[in-house]
Automatic annotation (TrEMBL):
Keywords: Amino-acid biosynthesis, Arginine biosynthesis, ATP-binding, Ligase, Magnesium, Manganese, Metal-binding, Nucleotide-binding, Pyrimidine biosynthesis, Repeat. The lineage of its organism: Bacteria, Bacillati, Bacillota, Clostridia, Eubacteriales. This is Carbamoylphosphate synthase large subunit. Pathway: Amino-acid biosynthesis; L-arginine biosynthesis. InterPro entries: ATP-grasp, ATP_grasp_subdomain_1, CarbamoylP_synth_lsu_oligo_sf, CPAse_ATP-bd, CPSase_dom, CPSase_lsu, CPSase_lsu_oligo, CPSase_preATP-grasp.
């Protein structure tokens, strides 16, 4: 099919700042869309307000506007650029809501702008709760008994008629914002009031609660000729009642019968056709585990975080295909970029297991409400691929960077049985670890199923992990670990570090023994077609399997370490840096290899690097890849604190760290060494020094006087950095916020009230370039990531600027 008539210039709307429920997945989707449209010879105009994104790079679109995403500013750009079409479905809920406002205000019609992709009526049918309900009833797809309320009084009348609990879902919001489950009338009043405030049309859906049913998602594609495919189906390990963004998800589904799978697949195709969506959409179902009854819960008529997960899990580029569909191409005309042979109408087939595990911000907000419900709290997520469920789950745990490498939470051991069962019943971010603790204590699968409603299949798999764990413990106490047991442990996904703790050996000794026994990982390829066709894009994961599919080249190569899951203090900006690093290496003729585990990012797109490894960013997995690829070196500077923390263990293993040396990284990161460096260079610093115990911290604070700034070494985003004003606060900090010891020193500095400035610099080892200085509007003591900054500085004064520029390097 030719491109839609009259479409020469297309405007793409981004998603704005990173917020919970709307993160890097929309940079990934927007970047793919811009590239996809330009491949078709179209001029692309982009508007977004987030400078940390790849999509706002000058080479991504023909014109980039970094402006607020409001109807007023988007209208200005439309008037200036006169685009023929507007593509809003790749900018998350922000883009969708803007499209609705621009269309209803008459701006699009006034300037002759065609809404591309999913039609406006289809967006309304999916997003407007009343219209969605009517359409589902018209096509005879079951939905929970529900009502639309625009006032609190309407909500109360419905609750009195059908009873509680009820789920409240505001219209036109993302991540379940403003919604929740009401178990009491007080809950109902509070949640409805909040939901009406968050909805741009002042509307909430109240529906019968199906908490405890299975939650199943289908990612579906449709083109303008009514061709439809399901890209991927996903099963939430957590039952209904927890937002899918906060749920641990497995793809493909593991517990559905063939009848259930095809029943929901057929319903998905029926729904996307009835809605008239052109592009991708995500459909969520609740399935009764005791019968074939199901309900349609929600449809997202746009790409979402689940779309990014489905794309990376299958290798099928959903946003790229959706953009081409939007300008008139059909699925049978769009070539599959992974195989280079099949077309986009070819449904992906998986011969492996994928697990998505959310990453929550409770390390930053230790006193925050950890309870999980219908309102999303995760800031990011990791994805793990393996040939078995067990291997993928343990790989996902290692990828989270929460200080754990196994399904074992040390704090759980101190819980009473009553406390444990209470926490299992009321889901929080540690629930799966608590499930493992319950099984270790002898709780039966049936008992844990009764409490959690997590399917018995998944509980049985966790129980299998724990049985092998016990075998290893007993073998270590008797005759030591046999090569057969070691191989079985690796196939189950046990880490070298965990096995070292179990056996009393060092991690290096376990690694050496494993290699001596020939127990090495094989690298398998993600190819969208279960090896039916040969893939052209090298995209790998490790598994302790026999056949290795990674064909290593003899070219000069460099590995770039990514930054893992998005969390507070380490966001999309490091993905931006990693991607630019890869592009620069490719320009210089190197084979660029990236290692990362974040499915939302551009860095894990199938064609960003020459080779992609979807693996945990821990020493064991990175060294396995290095052993296989034998690169000239590894770059750690662009993956945030995640990559920096790997510099020492990699260097100890003989890996060549490119760029800033490990020694110099340590001088910058180690607070005590950095202090000494400043003194040597004669650069003024606040009085203070390093404490290796609580007593030393008291002594330093009494010597220099309160308030003091306390902070550990090697942390990101100011984690565990605080201003304390007295001895009690200092004691609380030292006893709870950090682990202080000779291995974990804490710097205690005099806190100085004043102005904060920051400098970015780049050096080739001889020459130094300082692009400029940023001035914080807030006083010193507010983290730079939370400060409003202005560039160039306005009131700092010429003398201060010159002093900073002339400080010795």
């Amino acid at each position: 099919m030719p491109l839609k008539k009259g479409i020469r210039k297309v405007m793409v709307i981004g998603s704005g700042p990173i917020i919970i429920g709307q993160a890097a997945e929309f940079d990934y989707a927007g970047t793919q869309a811009c590239r996809s449209l330009r491949e078709e010879g179209l001029e692309v105009v982009l508007i977004n307000s987030n400078p940390a994104t790849i999509m706002t790079d000058s080479n991504m679109a023909d014109r980039v506007y970094i402006e607020p995403l409001t109807p007023e500013f988007v209208t200005r750009v439309i008037r200036a650029e006169r685009p023929d079409g507007l593509l809003p479905t790749l900018g998350g809920q922000v883009g969708l809501n803007l499209a609705l406002q621009l269309a209803e205000s008459g701006v699009l019609e006034e300037h002759g702008v065609q809404l591309l992709g999913t039609p406006l009526e289809a967006i309304k049918r999916a997003e407007d709760r009343e219209m969605f309900k009517e359409m589902m009833q018209a096509i005879k797809e079951p939905i929970p008994e529900s009502t639309i309320a625009s006032t609190l009084e309407e909500a109360e009348i419905f609750a009195e008629r059908i009873g509680l609990p009820l789920i409240i879902r505001p219209a036109y919001t993302l991540g379940g914002t403003g919604g929740g489950i009401a178990y009491t009338m007080d809950d109902l009043r509070a949640t409805v009031t909040r939901g009406l405030k968050h909805s741009i049309i002042g509307q909430v859906l109240l529906e019968r609660c199906v908490v405890g049913w299975k939650e199943i998602e289908y990612e579906v594609m449709r083109d303008g000729a009514d061709n439809c495919i399901t890209v991927c189906n996903m099963e939430n390990i957590d039952p209904m009642g927890i937002h899918t963004g906060d749920s641990i998800v497995v793809a493909p589904s593991q517990t559905l019968s063939d009848r259930e799978y095809h029943m929901l697949r057929n319903a998905s195709l029926k729904i996307i056709r009835a809605l008239g969506i052109e592009g991708g959409c995500n459909i969520q179902f609740a399935l009764d585990p005791g019968s074939f009854q199901y309900y349609v819960i929600e449809v997202n008529p746009r790409v979402s975080r689940s779309s990014a997960l489905a794309s990376k899990a299958t290798g099928y580029p959903i946003a790229k295909v959706a953009a081409k569909i939007a300008v008139g191409l059909t699925l049978d005309e769009i070539k599959n970029a992974v195989t280079g042979k099949t077309y986009a109408c070819f449904e992906p087939s998986l011969d492996y297991v994928v697990i998505k595990y959310p990453r929550w911000p409770f390390d930053k907000f230790a006193k925050g409400d950890r309870a999980l419900g219908t309102q999303m709290k995760a800031t990011g997520e990791v994805m793990a691929i393996n040939r078995t469920f067990e291997g993928a789950l343990l790989k996902a745990v290692r990828s989270l960077e929460i200080g754990l490498d196994h399904l074992a939470l040390p704090e759980a051991e101190s819980l009473s049985q009553e406390e444990l069962e209470s926490r299992l019943e009321n889901a929080d971010d540690e629930r799966l670890f608590l499930v493992a603790e319950g099984l270790r204590r002898g709780m039966t699968v049936e008992r844990i199923y009764e409490i959690t409603k997590i399917d018995r299949f998944f509980l049985g798999k966790i129980q299998g992990i724990l049985r092998l764990e016990e075998q290893i413990r007993l073998a270590s106490e008797k005759n030591g670990l046999t090569s057969q047991l070691l191989e079985q442990a690796k196939k189950f996904g046990f880490s070298d570090a965990f096995l070292a703790r179990q056996t009393g050996l060092s991690e290096q000794e376990i690694r050496a023994r494993r290699k001596a026994c020939g127990i090495l990982p094989a690298f398998k390829m993600v190819d969208t077609c279960a090896a039916e066709f040969e893939a052209e894009t090298p995209y790998y994961y490790s598994s302790y399997d026999r056949e290795d599919e990674a064909e290593v080249t003899g070219r000069r190569k460099v590995i770039v370490l990514g930054s893992g899951p998005i969390r507070i203090g380490q966001g999309i900006e490091f993905d931006y840096c990693s991607v630019h690093s890869v592009w620069a290496l490719r320009e210089e003729g190197y084979e660029a290899i990236i290692i990362n585990n974040n499915p939302e990012t551009v860095s894990t797109d199938f064609d960003t690097a020459d080779r992609l490894y979807f693996e945990p960013l821990v020493a064991e997995n990175v060294l396995n890849i290095i052993d296989r690829e034998k690169p000239d070196g590894v770059i750690v500077q662009f993956g945030g604190q995640t990559a920096i923390n790997l510099a020492k263990p990699l260097a100890r293993a003989g890996v060549n760290i490119l760029g800033t040396s490990v020694e110099d990284i340590d001088r910058a990161e180690d607070r005590e060494r950095f202090d000494k460096l400043l003194i040597e260079l004669g650069i003024p610093k606040p009085p203070g020094r390093t404490a290796f115990s609580v007593e030393e911290a008291y002594a330093i604070a009494s010597e220099i006087g309160f308030p003091v700034l306390v902070r550990p070494s090697y942390v990101l985003g100011g984690r565990a950095m605080e201003i304390v004003y007295n001895n009690k606060e200092l004691f609380d900090y030292m006893s709870s916020a950090v682990k202080v010891s000779p291995e974990y020193p804490v710097l205690v500095d005099k806190y100085i009230y004043g102005k904060e400035l920051e400098v970015d610099a780049i050096s080739d080892g001889a020459d130094i370039l300082i692009p400029g200085i940023m001035e914080h509007i807030e006083r010193a003591g507010v983290h730079s990531g939370d400060s409003t900054a202005v560039y160039p500085p306005r009131v700092a004064g010429v003398r201060i600027g010159v002093t900073i520029y002339q400080l010795p390097a």
